[in-house]
């Protein structure tokens, strides 16, 4: 690759990652709004169950561990990318994907059992806020998993190109960010909810 | 199958039917004209699919102008009702229609006129002024624009299919909740704002990154034109405030569609939470609009005074102070909600503090004229008018910031007069000044000065005549949004005066349209070069008409007003730069299709046509994935091509 | 730009024409203004008095900046106009002056500093939750905003009225305000301070009229189709008249209890004035309770931070 082309790629990397950081910041504000709403409404149980009635810490802890591990495997994938090791890269991305899907499955089963017990988002403002906050995070995870599928598809088809490299870096940022948001959800919703 | 949609959704009252028929005929006429002149392909390839920010900017301004006419038509109905029919029960405008009209007026003027004009000007000016060739993410820019258009289409669609919200431009619950507004009106409001709002957010990110990463070499932060600083402030607010809007609208929508209880009156819901959230976005929003207007005047005053801007650093600090402070004052919109005296007093004082940097800016502009050579071309007249109206508005703003005074005049016409004072006298005058100032740069000819001046005077006088009576009416006890009042109150005279003011404003708009048309017609007489005002900033350095790549070379800059210094100090050595091949983005229809899908999804959700919403969503996802996989998105302009083009552009315009 | 024929609209002609229009409009407006009609500037109560003084003080203080701005704007525009090349200096390179800029920051800073002190004290003084002090015993009135009328209940006197509220002159009146409707706002401009009325909430407002008189009250917050018809009469009478009136109304054969309330609460426009004997003394709490019964003790309303006065009465 010629030098001007390389400089251009570097600039593209810089521009895109700056843009993505800024996007993550706006997403942070979105989550902050939902957290604030949850904080205001968490006691508004309207005769329904409170946080300590319905949350199970072991399940939330399992979710946390799974998501943290997936963040770690995502890091390993990025390491493999740095070494241009396509095989390892795909393996670690695969592991990340499986962990992400398991996280989502547990979350959805938690939602399902709550709804079956009659504790849907319609029951109280608290439950509305809970489902929306946790659900929005789950939606982000879903988008992340879809993105990951596309990236792996491209890797199979085109190998490691500068473009897919950039995508992977962004995906890594996104995934770590979701991990961070989850830590907050785990603390504010589950830990503090059960403790209250 | 079709959700809530049935034939009942078609309009019933004569005024709405008239609006729909009129709008429909206008669209048909447009289509017929395109067909007759065989301009479809030209429109598609040269405009709709273009990723050139200059063209996207023009399209934004065109949409904003059309929406300005719609918003003015709404305003005309409001004024007519209050001046003529309010004291009797049998006017042509029912209470329900009146409420739809003022809700639409506010929403359209803020979201589709002011925001549209703002992003239009940003697209036109920002890349040029920082000496760049494009924005950071051209495709994203096109998508933002088409999302804006999609929101605009939805809000106007509510005229023909269904109804619009009657809950005001900010739709406070519980009025906007399912209990009191079961129809589709509020859903139209939610989804047109949600879609346009996401477009604004993406634009905000795009332009911030453009400014931070793509400035001309040598242009350090403190050498940027002050307009760019104002844009930074504006866009930081966009980036921090619009996600709050997205979250708030989503929650309101969930309340209305799947039965959550965020803002309902019962089951623990909290409408006051909504009021806090919407103003946590809403207050920064008004600064999003006014900061770039400040920036425009900071460009215009030095150019037309032939003098450097007075107090650049002060100006920059004031802008940043306003940016920061605008997030600390939202509660002043509801002092009467019953917060404690400490809370109210705190937010009142924070609000007044904003008057300090704002005052500094006014003083600095005036001192820029001091010992200058002030030429009163139209942009400068807008500036003079702006200072007059904005200062009055600032004073009434400080009045409203004192909780003890707000307790009396809140929600009255005094408040309405105040914010129109800021938004017409501040934002709109600023944008008009900007259009008059930059018009020749993009078209190669002046706007006709005489007609521009007539338009200005109509606007200024019309504004004063229309809104000063509203201050008095507010003090008399007239609440906002009244479709009727008792004749014995003695308000009608003042409402008639306000209506006359409206007519004068409409005359101003008429002259502006005539001015544009006349100037295009007589463009050969009004022809000018690339730098008609003896400009100071980089946009005046390139040729007119502007090549799609903006600048053939990217010579580094050394001074704050680099272009001015180069012109007026012959002893300076001109920096040179090599001509290199330039990459420009190829056109793509992706933005148009995303906008189309957004309309479909929004419409489907509003009418509960879930299968259509799902199909729309899946198609959008597939489209976005294919868009990210695209290769070969750029065209390379060769050196020969550049040389030929530059010769032609410079040759014709010099 | 090409100079063609002298156009009819020269800048000067336009400016003169503009000033003429403005003067005519201003005169017309002035003639239309009936001084007594301007409720906020013709206060008839303690609270509105203070608020009017606050308006005048703030306008005068603001003029300290506004007047010089106008003078400088037009003086500089005139003096440094393009044509005036002989008389006026021209310094294109000047781009600031430390001293002047410090003054620009300083003057508004001082003014806002003064105003901040006034704001702090006046906001506490005018806190609507603070009951007015008086040697006379205050009257308590419960207010409910309905679609689209106002219900007033006098728990002590055992009466209720619709769209008309009476109270004795020169006596503090403590309003407790709620809604059974979308958010509304209670405002009697002659007496001062408006307050939101919200479902499940209870806002406080203390007003006092100087003398007898009839004032207009209204709703200022959009709450549905009949919003603009939500006017009511606020009538201040002598104590004696008030007592006679309450006794008369207490003997009314119209009773207000939960059933009649539910009929009354249905959305309606053009509601005439009605007097009731208040049959259900706890009606106000029941109306509020409609929106609170499902809430736990730690109601969400208290945690929002905007209603920290809840229950202070």
List the keywords.
heterotrimer, A: 196 residues, mainly alpha, Four Helix Bundle (Hemerythrin (Met), subunit A), elongated, B: 654 residues, two-stranded antiparallel sheet
Describe what this molecule looks like in 3D.
With 196 residues, chain A is an all-alpha fold. Chain A has a single domain, classed as Cytochrome c oxidase, subunit III, four-helix bundle (Four Helix Bundle (Hemerythrin (Met), subunit A), Up-down Bundle), CATH 1.20.120. Chain A is 86% helix and 0% strand. Chain A has six helices and no strands. Chain B has 654 residues and is mainly alpha-helical. Chain B has 19 helices and two strands. Chain B has helices at residues 14-36, 40-48, 53-85, 95-129, 138-160, 185-213, 226-257, 271-305, 312-325, 341-369, 378-401, 403-409, 413-443, 449-476, 492-521, 562-568, 590-606, 610-629, 639-653; strands spanning 582-585, 634-637. Chain B has a two-stranded antiparallel ribbon. In chain B, helix 3 runs parallel beside helix 5 (138-160). The longest helix of chain B is centred in the N-terminal third of the chain and has 35 residues, at 95-129. Chain B is globular and about 75 Å long. Chain C contains seven helices and twelve strands. In chain C, strand 6 (184-187) and strand 7 form a beta hairpin. With 313 residues, chain C is α+β, with helices and mostly antiparallel strands. In chain C, the strands form two sheets. In chain C, strands 8-5-1-2-3-12-11 form a seven-stranded mixed sheet. A five-stranded mixed sheet of chain C has the order 4-10-9-6-7. Chain C is elongated. Chain C has two domains: 11-85, no CATH class; 139-294, Cupredoxins -  blue copper proteins (Immunoglobulin-like, Sandwich). Helix content of chain C is 37%, strand content 20%. Classes of the chains: A mainly alpha (196), B mainly alpha (654), C alpha+beta (313). Chains in contact: A-B, A-C, B-C. The A-C interface holds A 39-41, 43-47, 50, 124-125 and C 294-296, 298-300, 303-304.
